[in-house]
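Morning. Coffee machine broken again, so started the prediction first thing and wrote up yesterday's gels while waiting. Chain of 242 residues, entered below exactly as on the submission form.
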Amino acid sequence: MSRSLSLIAGLAAVALVAVPLTGAIAEKAASKPAKAVATQPAPPPAPVKLGLGRPALPEEVHAWDTDVRPDGVGLPKGKGTAKEGDVLFQERCSTCHGEFGEGVGRYPVLSGGLGTLTADRPDKTVGSYWPDATTVYDYISRAMPFGNARSLTADEAYALTAYLLNMSDVIKDPDFELDQSNLAKVKMPNADGFYDDDRETSEKQFWNKNPCMKNCGPAPKVIGRAISVDVTPDEKAGPRVD
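Came back before lunch.
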């Protein structure tokens, strides 16, 4: 075939391919769905290891896992009496709380207050307000003495708890030995004054899907400021930090 004929044949083939489909052929071609291109999600990036620290050892976790539940779970082994706690209280606690838990200055009162919870100014003490004897121990062992927290042994914390309960007439015998087996059985005077959160039933009538968000009431009036009424103790005497 000559060069001219070859060129003409090539142009004819190109024209044939470029002609659009018409009629039944076009309809058949249009009815075939296009094949979707499968896309795989990108794998998540591998976690970056910073190379800092190490997993805590069981004994290290145990050293800090010292919280005590109301039912007594978490109480450590130990024991103490109110008579033993009296000595400890005078040495480490009376500077702030007084010799008999009456409170010094504006520091918390720990004893007395029975029957005052319905008064205008109730005395919320260990005996009058606290719901569980176990959490008295928990707070003492983790937060007291002020400024020297976690310095008490388990026996000392049991003894101080017994002393506070004895001052509130919860434990009558000063020689009664308090320990991990009987502390949760102690019934506090105000134990029945606490109940589970019942707002889903008792306060549901106040719930509103469209709560007021503007001009809902008069502006609050500030009648006093903490810095003005001097509610913070400023005595120089305080517990000595070892």
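The two ends are 112 Å apart (CA to CA). Going to sketch it on the whiteboard this afternoon.
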